[in-house]
Automatic annotation (TrEMBL):
Protein family per UniProt: Belongs to the NlpA lipoprotein family.
KW Iron-sulfur (keyword) present: no
PROSITE patterns found in the cross-reference section: PROKAR_LIPOPROTEIN
Main subcellular location of this protein, as a coarse class: membrane
Annotated organism of origin: Corynebacterium jeddahense
Signal peptide location: 1-22
UniProt name for this protein: D-methionine-binding lipoprotein MetQ
Keyword set includes tRNA-binding: no
Keywords linked to the UniProt accession: Lipoprotein, Membrane, Palmitate, Signal
Domain of life of the native organism: Bacteria
Membrane association type: Lipid-anchor
């Protein structure tokens, strides 16, 4: 794994100033020695959300536990996994299992899961309404991207508003063609995720993910229905720490998972998500089994 003990404050400052890789390939013996002599280990971690409060708390907590986090901010999702696969970073935390599965399938790489963080339920919003009453016959805007469309349809299935046809290709990722229109109470219109708040503001019901809720200033607490974070349908959307296959049992990376799951970080995550995030504590093997099932499909 690409981690290295910080030997001196001056060296650490030089690394930070130049933006170079903060560590080099070390043997397991060297990593063990770092732990024994009390030296700090530097881990380069990639994310798209480093401006959130949870990351400040996480970084401070890691430092208290002998881990210097070199947080690499990406402006877009697409390069983060590739940077990990190429060894430019040691670990990342920005994605759910389904996104990771799709990356592995398209790239031919085999990134794996170190541990779980949280899940953010996907919810249905309808301006000036507090329940599903009166929604029958309405047209509901749903995001059309691969990461959210199937989940949005399943939200409406869980709400009892849609029925799916039998023997569909993938029950975890249904498409509009899988909907039994005659047996359903509503219809759906797939739109770009950025347009779902516009549909909401026009008075139409809409499935809106947290990114666009925040940008549109819509309070998550005003949803009229959300999916069950403990359901099988929600499993692909558990957010995770990902690493290269050979590193998923690394002591330091597993320590980072433990630290993210502490009350201090979870409180900050809840604040960032305005109370919508739900902590997830799943066994590493179970998480990778879910990953494998999604990739096989």
């Amino acid at each position: 794994m690409r981690m290295k003990r910080t030997l001196a404050t001056v060296a650490a400052a030089a690394i930070a100033a130049t933006g170079l890789v903060a560590c080099s390939d070390d043997s397991n013996d060297n990593k063990d020695n770092n732990a024994k002599d009390g030296g700090n280990v530097t881990v380069k971690i990639g994310t798209t959300e480093s401006d959130q409060e949870a990351w400040r708390v996480f970084k401070d907590l890691a430092k208290d536990n002998g881990i210097n986090l070199d947080i690499v901010q990406f402006s877009d999702y697409s390069p983060v996994n590739e940077a990990l696969a190429q060894g430019e970073i040691d670990v990342n935390k920005f994605q759910h299992i389904k996104y990771l599965a799709a990356y592995n399938q398209s790239s031919g790489n085999d990134l794996r899961i170190v541990g779980s963080t949280e899940i953010v339920p996907l919810a249905l919003f309808w301006k000036d309404h507090t329940s599903l009453d009166g929604i029958e016959g309405k047209e509901i805007a749903i995001p059309n991207d691969p990461s959210n469309q199937g989940r949005a349809i399943n939200v409406l299935v869980q709400a009892g508003l849609l029925k799916l046809k039998g023997n569909i290709a993938d029950e975890l990722a249904p498409t509009p063609t899988d909907i039994d229109k005659d047996a359903s109470k509503v219809s759906v219109v797939p739109v770009d995720a950025s347009q779902t708040p516009s549909a909401y503001n026009e008075g139409r019901p809409a499935i809106i993910n947290n990114t666009w809720l925040d940008r549109a200033g819509i309070e998550p607490s005003t949803s009229i229905f959300q999916d069950d974070p403990n359901s099988k349908e929600a499993e692909p959307y558990i957010n995770v720490f990902a690493a290269r296959k050979d590193d998923i049992d690394d002591e330091t990376l597993n320590k980072l998972v433990e630290l993210w799951q502490t009350p201090e970080v979870e409180e900050a995550v809840a604040k960032d998500s305005k109370g919508t995030s739900v902590p997830v504590y799943r066994d590493k093997q179970e998480l990778n089994d879910i990953l494998d099932r999604l990739q096989n499909k």
